[in-house]
Amino acid sequence: MDKNWQKKMEEAKKEITYPRKWGYTIIGTDREKMRQAVRECIDNQECEVRDSKQHGKYYSQKFEAVVNSEEERNRFYQRLQQHKDIKFVL
User: Fold this and answer.
1) pLDDT at residue 68, rounded to an integer
2) How far is CA 70 from each of CA 16, 36, 84, rounded to the nearest angstrom?
3) CATH superfamily of 17-89
4) pLDDT tens, 12-28?
5) Of 48 and 88, more confident
């Protein structure tokens, strides 16, 4: 891996301050089940899930959650990724 690229990534990582809002996009096949999955995966935190687009049988939704640390941000991401009603997380 290019050392300059690694250095830039480390510097960018240092610039993220917490707590902050973090945006997620999820893709699945059932809008309501996806909304419920979001509530479960982010510890029932208040957030507005917005329908984005439909591509055939798949729907995308966007939402923002307040994260207090990189660990919490990654934990939410992993929970979303592993949930049965969510196919992809961006």
Assistant:
1) 94
2) 9, 23, 24
3) ACT domain (3.30.70.260)
4) 666 889 999 999 999 99
5) 88
